[in-house]
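The authors assume throughout that readers already know how a fold can be written as discrete tokens. Each protein is reduced to its one-letter sequence and a matching series of backbone shape codes. I therefore recommend that a typical entry be quoted early in the introduction. For illustration, here is how one protein appears when written out as sequence plus structure tokens:
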Amino acid sequence: MNSVQGRGGVRHLNSSRTNIVAALDIGSTKISCLIARVPALDAKANIDPRQNLRVLGFGQTLSRGVKSGAIINIDEAECAIRLAVDAAERMAEIAITDVYVSVSGGRVQSSSFAADHHTQTGVVSPRDLDSVVTAALSQVNVGKRTILHVQPNNFVLDGTSDISSPLGMHGDVLHAEVGVTSVEPAYLRNVALAVERSHLRVAGFVIAPYAASKSCLMGDELQLGTTVVELGGAITSIGHFRNGQLLAAETIHIGGSHVTSDIAQGLSTTLAHAERMKTMWGNVLAEGHSAQDMLAVPLLGERGVDTVHKVPKSHLSNILRPRVEETLELVRDKIAASSAAVRATASRIVLTGGASQLTGLRELATAILGVPVRLGQPVGIGNLPDRASNAGFAAVSGTLVYAARPDRHFAIPEEAVAHFERARMGYARRVGQWLAEAF
């Protein structure tokens, strides 16, 4: 039996050797952890992993030591991570050792690379697949960035496109389009350091909009094309999906905490009261409140009932609406500047993240983005607690789904791995040469 006495008196199980999976979301406003049990499944089985997950534990705490998705104080971040993980472990009565982590910072970038290859025998073999993918990835200049996701977005065989798996098919010319998503390595190292100091091992990273898609999107949305907009505390992350694959991802450094700050500034109140007012009465629609609806606002730095002033609720809407409009307009501009393939996925948009829960946001987003918009929330995950079933926990619940079935359908060929290593060494040599010449 794989159990000994662990932290806090709970059973200690190594998730790498059991059917226990865990997910951690380190956000700018909250840190959350989910632990679940999942039966061993055939990786090739066409079963939605959400159907087999059963959540055992959930923990959440206010974020500390994190700003704009990045670690700024290792000690504070470690303490917050410990609190969230400990709460989840106590509920699950299991101590975890491995965890998958969702990320939104690190200046996410995506690129697509394509190549052609003539099949050796007229039938696509594993070697043909490796050759065409290696040819596509040989164009990647990783520089000093770290690659998180590599996915084949499209295979074309003799002019027939959108082939998900060409292996064994007859054809002469195989064309591959491969998407590469990367982040800055220092950002990942600091996140990993905070997690490892909490006595956990990072099993893998997944970008926030990709994670959110795992918990919120339906099968048809993934196939036909959908854009996920994860409205987080300090960062808005965008992920574009088609044929079940991540086409591209990008970030905007504006989120719900900026709205809170605007309210605090505009009403001269504390950030805590601003957050409470945004959560309880925030409405981005101008007609959402009548002139008679009033709010009692405590003044910053004052005490007592005499220092509370009253303002119309419509005034709150007038403060937060411009920031939300700015965010949605930046999302619209990002989409407009994307490739035609990426723009095609934005014919439908799903909003996730804590900031997506503002009253009237869906209607405002539909007006600004000009396409159908719906609010996404985790679906199909067994035993997910009610307080973790809203859009604010789409990333962590999706990371849990990813942990149950990580991307294994595509392996980078050895030649491509060697190319990446050569590219990294080349970058190191260039930096060394520059230092020698400069100093």
